[in-house]
Each structure stands twice: as structure tokens, then as C-alpha cells.
Design brief:
340 residues, alpha+beta, Heat Shock Protein 90, Ribosomal Protein S5, domain 2, single chain, 15 strands, binds adenosine-5'-diphosphate, eight-stranded mixed β-sheet, 10 helices
Amino acid sequence: MGIIQVMPDALANQIAAGEVVERPASCVKELVENSLDAGATEIRVSLEEGGIAAMVVQDNGHGMDPDDAVLAFARHATSKVRSARDLFKIATLGFRGEALASIAAVARVRLETRPRGSESGIVVQVEGSRQTAPPAPVGMPEGTRIEVRDLFFNTPARLKYLRSVTTEQARCLEVVQKAALARPDVAFVLETNGHVMFQSGGRGNLLEVAAAVFGAGEARQMLSVEGATPDYRIHGLIGRPTQARASRAHAHLFINDRPIRNYALHQAVMAGFGARLMTKRHPMYVLYLQMDPALVDVNIHPHKAEVRFSEERDVARVVQDAVQRALDEAFLVPSIHIDR
Ligand code: ADP
Ligand code: MG
């Protein structure tokens, strides 16, 4: 007799959760991504104790019908990818079908959802991968509300690894601010223990969101960036060289509205600044690149924040040129002719 056993789902989910939900902020990120994928224009995130005790994400997106509301918690259950071919042109933020299953494996989750045009919503409750009550109808506005309590209640090792409430809260704030920058057309609110910590108007005005994130004084000084080639389009804002920071915390790059981390492109921005930047300083920027999804692979890491380009050097060139041009224009010394 062999000794190999297939893991029970709850155990497999818990292991998968380790990749997806490291801390409250990763949970917030997944839930907000789902709200955006559902076409929400208003997203409210509420935290208790930095999200460790509880978090609620409420949206006005398209909601789920009762069957989907239950199925959403199954691993590899997604409405976003149907075939292998879809993987080469992912247009949604999610596609792995792992987030809700992972979160529900390590927390107590209450999902309320009401599809557009439906009379009422449905509530589904899952704790540690187990449904704790049969789905029941619930009165609620259209959209989805997900409450996540007692994160890591059944994985003490992970719970111990969390930092202070202040630190976890700060990371959640970063996630919401990044999402707000990614989507100036969506209104975000972040509340902690009932107090509004961050808010963006959702009016589609980048400068307005930048002011909410960086402060009005900083945002006002930033320079606008614009550029295009047949394959790529770039736009956004860069800080002046004098606004550069010691860390990369104010460097935001979005590919097709997805926040990403990419060292080569950060270097490309730096190269665009060239000698204008003091050594060991990082420019502030909010840059958006649009390209055919087939030219970028987002399926290389569970966090979906790292990407691979089929033509990395071309992308880097577009970024560098656009940044350099914006700076050249801003600091062009006008030629003055003085007649004596
Ligand atoms: P993925 O986002 O990769 O598809 P998730 O586990 O995050 O996987 O979500 C599973 C499915 O549940 C999604 O594909 C979507 O159909 C549904 N879903 C999750 N959150 C929402 C939401 N806020 N509004 C509408 N549908 C949602
Ligand atoms: Mg998702």
C-alpha cells in the first residue's frame, strides 16, 4: 500500500493561504481587487485594529447570484478565466480563484451580496473553510459586502508573525492609496475604528487623488508625463527632482491599471531623471502604462504584483523617454535676448 494521501480541502486551502494572505493588507488588496473587477465605482474599507480584529470591504459592484456566492469560496473557482488561452491576455486584477478560498481558510468570513436588479441579497458564512450556516436571504443595497474577522485565528504561527496594529494599519492604508491612484475614477474610503483615514473622490482626476495621497502641496509641484509608441502608452505625474525621497515609497507604477513592482522600470524612471537626481534619492512618480495584455505576463507570482514583459527593453525605453521629455520641458531655460 502506498503512503501518499490527497490533502483534505481545508488543509490545502490553509497552505495556499500562506501565499496569498500574509497579513491584513494582503487581504484588503485581494478584496479591493475583487470589488474593482466587479465594476464597483464606490469602495469602502473599514478596519478594526489594523484589520487584525476585523475588516469590511463594501462595494457597489455587480454582486453575485446565490450559487456563485457559495462557489466563490471554493479553490480555483473564478468567473474570470475560462481557458488556458485567457491566461495570455488577462484583463482583470484577479484570475487565480484563490483569494476568497484562502481568506476563508484562515478567518471568519461573512459575505453578503446582491446582484444588480435582484430583489434581495444572500449571506454566506464560512469559518476556517467550513460553511457555518446555510446561505440565507438578507436585505442590503446592490453590491457586495465582505467582513473578515479574526484573521489567522486557526493559524497561531501566522498570527504571531503580525506586527503592531499601527504597522498593519499603515500597510492597509498603502494598499488603499495605491488602489485609489490606480483608479482615479473610483471613490475610495478607508476608515479605521470609525474614523476616516483616507478618501478619494472618484471623479477621475489624477491630480486630485495625488493630492489626497501625497498632500496638496506636493501634488501641485508634480509634472505631467505623456508619451506613446504604437505598442505602448504612458501618462501620469512625476515629482520634481527636489521632491525626490530617500525611499521608493512614493514610486507608483501601473500597467493596465494594475499596481506593479518592476525593478527595470524603476531604473528606467531613474534614468529619465539622469543627473538631475541626487545619488541615493528616488523620484516620486505615478505612472500609468497601457499595453496589449498579451505583451505582459502577470501570472508569475501569487501576489500578482510582479510582471514579465515580452519586450522589456522597449517598455523601459518608453518610460525613460517620457520622463526625460517631461523634465526637459519643465526645466527648459527660455532664451532671452536683451538689447543693450
Ligand atoms: P478571482 O478574483 O481570482 O477570480 P477570488 O477568490 O478573489 O478569485 O474570487 C472568486 C470569485 O468570486 C470571482 O471570480 C468573482 O466571480 C466572485 N467575487 C469575489 N468578490 C466579488 C465582489 N466583490 N463582487 C462580485 N463578485 C465577486
Ligand atoms: Mg480576486
